[in-house]
Amino acid sequence: MIRTAESHPLTWRLRADHQPVWFEEYRAKQGYVGAEKALAIAPTAVTDLVKAAGLRGRGGAGFPTGVKWSLVPMDPKFDKKYILCNADEMEPGTYKDRLLMEQLPHQLIEGMLIGAYALQAYRGYIFLRGEYIEAAQRLRQAIEEATKAGFLGKNILGTGFNFELFVHTGAGRYICGEETALINSLEGRRANPRAKPPFPALAGAWGKPTCVNNVETLNNIPSIMQNGVDWYKGISAGKSNDTGTKLMGFSGRVNNPGVWELPFGTTAREILEDYAGGMRDGLTLKAWQPGGAGTDFLTEQHLDLPMDFDSIGKAGSRLGTALAMAVDNEINMVSLTLNLEKFFSRESCGWCTPCREGLPWSVKILQALEKGEGQRGDIETLEKLCRDLGPGKTFCAHAPGAVEPLQSAIKYFRAEFEAGINPEPLLASPVPKGIQPNLLEKRW
């Protein structure tokens, strides 16, 4: 596959030896041209271009980036504003942002510079997953290079605009992917989500207007500024309502797991068969998650759907990160779902009752079903938990995302859950003669 600047704006600069593209090489490959164009026009004009390009957030939610930027007040009285990069990539099965940060650190820095100028933010932070040690080292080195070259710091390129950028490594909590929990952690507080309103655009980091964008989202900005809106919208012309390209991939027991930059509208079947090489010999596809552990399972019948936000949403799941996971026919769905729910239960911040209590409850029921010790009504209890932990029922989106794989696994593979029901009720100890056991009493 030949990558060009016109067809692969995110990855065409990658080296064949997988080494980082440092400043001199990045400049030779048209690096910071987009930033130079952005700094030559008004900040609001930059936001208008991003809005017109139709760029949607690449962290999973898909919120329009230009609209998000436009929510940040431009009144001069807000003299301190922040732009934050959400690089806390802890979604199981997702590794796209790591690729960009380790091999193209300057592309992220350029995207943050343009975003900072559009928002008139004086300081930025890359909130990085603590385990990404190599990414941290390379980003810090790239920041030093950009500062020496005059693209960060005081009076950037003689425009009078000042912007400094820092890398902040997190302590390893999945909840930091939620933007207000990220802000709390950045401030040195416990990583709990905040009540909204006020939204970060008005009162974010240290009470100042703040915008949080994903790594891949910010990596799209330089090419939009350099090549224009019409070009960016045309990459996926005729294939999808979404614009630009997306890092997509497949993991699981496929022949060639990986991540590739593809235009929106590419079908899941194309990615699985043409890029990931199909399932390994002797295995067949049973189910797949479109974009990370917190998305609903789909089945083989959904493989011909275009990989874009609307198409996957209409099928009952979410595009999420677009890093799909293939589930083969040898995997038991109860065991797989249990593994996912253990993760989500452990990573709950415990701030709200439904999430704190509901997710461990689902784990206990799934453990019983896996052992064949489930009781009548357990599956119905799991379904009720999915409803009670759904959107709008909890403080943030952690629990709603956590129950998506559970509710879809029951929907498509209910028989595997029913197989874990023990037809005879289990009693913890012998019941004294003359006392009727309460068959509704649970084991915990």
TrEMBL record:
One of its GO terms (molecular function) is 4 iron, 4 sulfur cluster binding. Its cofactor is [4Fe-4S] cluster; FMN. Keywords: 4Fe-4S, Flavoprotein, FMN, Iron, Iron-sulfur, Metal-binding, NAD, Oxidoreductase, Quinone, Translocase. Residues 334-379 form the NADH-ubiquinone oxidoreductase 51kDa subunit iron-sulphur binding domain. The keyword Ion transport does not apply. InterPro entries: NADH-UbQ_OxRdtase_51kDa_CS, NADH-UbQ_OxRdtase_suF, Nuo51_FMN-bd, Nuo51_FMN-bd_sf, Nuop51_4Fe4S-bd, Nuop51_4Fe4S-bd_sf. It holds the Pfam family Complex1_51K. It comes from the Bacteria. Belongs to the complex I 51 kDa subunit family. Composed of 13 different subunits. Subunits NuoCD, E, F, and G constitute the peripheral sector of the complex. NDH-1 shuttles electrons from NADH, via FMN and iron-sulfur (Fe-S) centers, to quinones in the respiratory chain. This is NADH-quinone oxidoreductase subunit F. It comes from Tolumonas auensis (strain DSM 9187 / NBRC 110442 / TA 4).
